[in-house]
Amino acid sequence: MFSRWQMHATAIVVFGMAAVARPARAEEAADRGISMSAWAGAAVDRSVVAANSGRPLHDGAPLVGATALGNIRWVALGGSVDAAPGRNGDGRLSIGVLLGVQPEVDRLRIQVLGEAGRHRFSDVGGNVFAHQVGPDTWLPYLGVRLGVARTVPAHGMFEVGAWLFARHDVGEATVTNVGSFSGQESRTDYRLGGWMCGLALRVGLHLEAADPRRTEEMLSSSAP
What we know:
mainly beta
């Protein structure tokens, strides 16, 4: 599990990247662009709790994921997949679509996105001595995602950045975990469906291009 100081460090990076961009008015974003990045981070997890006590199964969870985000001017659309690796089971998987805006200030892309998708819960509470009864559970979710990204070098194709995200499952479900230790069987019910929020660092590629029609219009207007 990622420690609290690592989450704080990621938050410092988010605000630091915004701070290094000198104050400026929002510039026109590239006419067309696409970013493909991998990311890793940590989240506070309240999406699984014990049904009888309401205590979270895990206080936090490490996450790894990948995101593809394209833009036409300020409008951004893409998709994301991420997972919380489980130990001997107890894993999570989220698949979602992203839609929002991506203004640009001094080569710093600022992303404000809504997110919607499906959240899979696998072998909840599973370990060497216990397993979930029944199949995996899928729940829909809604969320928001704030990001900053910059190409390195300034007009290059490599991208570094960070995500701040929050999501909430829509609906609930209950699953049962059965364990056996020293010949004694135990049963624990878990309630699925809650919230998760976290921070992540990302690296990847960013490609952009101007609209050919707009470029032609600019050249025509500047011709004598």
